[in-house]
Amino acid sequence: MSRIFQTLGADKDAIPLLWIAAPLTGLLVQPIIGYLSDKTWHPRWGRRRPYFLIGAILSSLALFLVPHSSVLWMAAGFLWILDASINISMEPFRALVADKLPNSQRSYGFVVQTLIIGIGTWIASNLPWMVSQLGVSDAAPKGVVPMSVKVAFGIGAVVFLISILYTVFTTSEYPPEDMEEFERERKKKNRFIPDILENIGKMPLTMKKLGLIQFFSWFAFFTMWSMANPALTEHVFQTPAPIEAAFDLTIASQAEAFDTANTAFQKSSNLVGSAMGVYGLSSMAFALLLALYTSKKRINRKFVHMGSLILGGVGFMAMYYATPETLKYCFILIGIAWGSILSMPYAMLSSSVDPKKMGVIMGIFNMFIVIPQIIAALGGINYVSSLLGEDAINAMTVAGISLILAALCNLFIVNKDAISYQPENEIN
């Protein structure tokens, strides 16, 4: 998305604000979907799957249309639709993992989910480069998204829809344990806002502490998603997006120079995307190791998460010294942090909350993901990174510092079940 925004003329300092759709839609949509899915049950479609299906259809349409935007406001508008739709699909997925598994298997379950996410991240990040290697052009007129990006987004839309349809039609869900009580609760007067506020007010202490970890973790990753492309194309590849005002496009030589600079930017953006894909690959490898281990033995979730976040922080700060050849090693370290972020906090949370409220609790927990992103988008990234200087790469240093702060916050977690759930009679 940052590449599309820059292609359509966005200044790099404006990019975080253009990304604000992602956290704002999450803040609004996820608690609502979590609350509604807790109160949903259909004998055939279950509790979470209807929301997967609705979100998948809307998301796929938006994914296909985004790169065809002709102006900046259109791309930003499609991003709002895309993120709202993805949130409808994604929030129930986390609740489904907790619904399906006993406490003793939740670390394993969330780690396996992370493994699959890692595969998708690697493939998706490399898609524009792969499509370009097949001969699809990276060149495009001023203000037009290259065909390689359009094809990559189209493939993403198809894969997204097919994968969720597969989940909807092949996954079963457990009915409520006490159906009569569930029906009585469902028929009560809708108290959505009071119930949400009540659950926020009664938030377990462990959830609040995890929220602090999430705040710094997601500030860091939002910084990466929004600013990695401008930062790395400029600092590592030395091919920043050309600024139209710096060229007189009425002069043939100036127009040719703009096109050359723009094509160089698009090609280095492919390489940045390919390097970023490595974090999906390393998160997958890390998740695989955790999956093999947690399927047989307990782990100390607190210290696994702490160590992983420190490695990710080092990866971000090392980008300042990276070359095009060494950049991938930075993303390998970041992938370890990402693999842990997608699994350990949810495993710790699900072991310390009421399972009957898993959907709404997961939705509320999402507040600790979206609030830091909103702060980052509304100027947090620009302000903090400006303290280090004007170069875009300083945003990556800020992300590294933020991840290390998140790591240290793990020291506040003391709940034994959250740290390492000890099964008594549960078996595989």
TrEMBL record:
<feature type="transmembrane region" description="Helical">
    <location>
        <begin position="49"/>
        <end position="66"/>
    </location>
</feature>
<dbReference type="InterPro" id="IPR020846">
    <property type="entry name" value="MFS_dom"/>
</dbReference>
<dbReference type="Pfam" id="PF07690">
    <property type="entry name" value="MFS_1"/>
</dbReference>
<feature type="transmembrane region" description="Helical">
    <location>
        <begin position="303"/>
        <end position="323"/>
    </location>
</feature>
<feature type="transmembrane region" description="Helical">
    <location>
        <begin position="72"/>
        <end position="90"/>
    </location>
</feature>
<feature type="domain" description="Major facilitator superfamily (MFS) profile">
    <location>
        <begin position="1"/>
        <end position="175"/>
    </location>
</feature>
<protein>
    <submittedName>
        <fullName>MFS transporter</fullName>
    </submittedName>
</protein>
<feature type="transmembrane region" description="Helical">
    <location>
        <begin position="110"/>
        <end position="131"/>
    </location>
</feature>
<feature type="transmembrane region" description="Helical">
    <location>
        <begin position="17"/>
        <end position="37"/>
    </location>
</feature>
<dbReference type="InterPro" id="IPR011701">
    <property type="entry name" value="MFS"/>
</dbReference>
<dbReference type="InterPro" id="IPR036259">
    <property type="entry name" value="MFS_trans_sf"/>
</dbReference>
<keyword id="KW-0813">Transport</keyword>
<keyword id="KW-0472">Membrane</keyword>
<feature type="transmembrane region" description="Helical">
    <location>
        <begin position="151"/>
        <end position="169"/>
    </location>
</feature>
<feature type="transmembrane region" description="Helical">
    <location>
        <begin position="329"/>
        <end position="348"/>
    </location>
</feature>
<feature type="transmembrane region" description="Helical">
    <location>
        <begin position="360"/>
        <end position="381"/>
    </location>
</feature>
<keyword id="KW-0812">Transmembrane</keyword>
<feature type="transmembrane region" description="Helical">
    <location>
        <begin position="210"/>
        <end position="228"/>
    </location>
</feature>
<keyword id="KW-1133">Transmembrane helix</keyword>
<feature type="transmembrane region" description="Helical">
    <location>
        <begin position="393"/>
        <end position="414"/>
    </location>
</feature>
<feature type="transmembrane region" description="Helical">
    <location>
        <begin position="271"/>
        <end position="291"/>
    </location>
</feature>
